[in-house]
Amino acid sequence: MDQSVIHTLKTNYKRELIQKMVDGDTPNVISFLKEMTIRDAVNIIHSAWAAISKVSLRKCWEKGLPMPDSSLSDDEGEKSDFWGSTDKDIQDSARQKIADFLEVDEREVDHHLKMWVDEDANLPTAQEKTDEDTSQEALARGEPTPSEEQKQEEPPSSAPSTQQALKNLQVVLDFWTSQGKNLEAIQVETQMRKVREIQAKQQKQTELASSS
Question: How many CB atoms lie within 10 A of CB 157?
């Protein structure tokens, strides 16, 4: 499959993509790719898949599942597919392959298939964890339980003042300056300027409120 159909699909996709780019009015390849959407890609894949011939598909399956002669027709009383094989032909060929793989008689294949299907029948599926389960797992790993985490949470503090922000930013500025990081220092200075603007607005609002 990977060496035939998928390879053919990729080749067809590249051809359709190049054809779409040639037919378009974009000035260059980069502009064309930037304008591509997921819908465009899906449409190209659809065209590329439709261009794969029935012969390629048949040859792909024949590598792993040999098919009988395509001369078989609907006259046999069974509906055949596009390469002339009936459902019974495919089932018989698959059954023989499984029997050879398991090294068992072909009559025992149904029994083994049923065993495979029922292998996981009694296994539990997805299950929601309770708070108790989470607490037990946390204790086993030495981590705090959800209730302990809530106790450890500190009450929310008030927002820092502009004066505190400026003080902390000054520390950061001094650090970047000492490290020779001019770009980072400029960014911190920009932040400090914005904080000072906020500080000036707050002071003006305070003065207006006190004068009224």
Answer: 6
